[in-house]
Amino acid sequence: MAQTIHHYCIFETAGGFCGIAWSDAGIARFQLPTKTAEATERLLLRRLPDGEAGVPTPDVLATVAAVKRYFQGEETDFSGVELDLAGQDGFFREIYAAARRVGWGHTTTYGALAKELGAGPEAAREVGQAMAKNPVALIIPCHRVLAAGGKIGGFSAPGGSSSKTRMLELEGVNLAPPPPAQQSLGF
Questions:
Q1: Which spans in 11-144 are helix H?
Q2: pTM recorded for the entire structure
């Protein structure tokens, strides 16, 4: 059986340097921004050690342009991007498909995604594991999936949960607690 060839490129956005890797089947890896091209390349190749630098295809170039628009704060939809999820568990693929339906400026929870898939509340932990292992963060918008009660939860990308918060804020999602219903009279 022939080994799949993955090419990649590193590019700059308003949020920092991102990396994208692809095969003939679609986008296989995406690296969220870091401060340097070298750091991004190192992180991308950690998950794709056989990757080779390459010239992006027209579809990859369109995705790169969409990522740049995203980090400029422009509403962007990645649901039509072809993905190469070879090697991913079947249930994880279902979780990823459900997460891709969570649009710009919206959030859901691990438990709500599990319920949407017809699984019990115990599957929320599997949803969290799928999000942590997401090979194409942003394109599969794991940053839009929160912990119970709308808490930020974890985020395995550079910057951790603060990066997740910044991405949600870029989409207009405010995770601050609501103001009190009753205001003080000031005396």
A1: 37-47, 58-71, 90-100, 110-116, 124-132
A2: 0.89
Distance (Å, rounded) from C-alpha 132 to C-alpha 154?
A: 8
- Give the CATH fold of the 88-169 domain: Arc Repressor Mutant, subunit A (1.10.10)
Does CATH number 3.30.160.70 belong to domain 4-70?
yes
- Tell me if residue 68 falls in helix, strand or coil: helix
Give, for 19, the enclosing helix (H) or strand (E).
Answer: strand 16-23
b (16+ CB within 10 A) / e for 110-126: bbbbbbbeebeeebbeb
Question: Which sequence spans correspond to the domains of the chain?
Answer: 4-70, 88-169
pLDDT of 168? 94
% of the chain exceeding 70 in pLDDT: 93
Q: Look up residue 182 and give its DSSP letter.
A: S
Per-residue pLDDT band for 180 (boundaries 50, 70, 90) equals low
- For residues 32 and 183, give the distance between their C-alpha atoms in angstroms, rounded to a whole number: 41
Residues labelled as active-site residues: 142
Q: What is the pLDDT of residue 183?
A: 65
State the distance between the two ends of the chain, measured CA to CA, in whole angstroms: 77
C-beta atoms surrounding 181 within 10 Å: 5
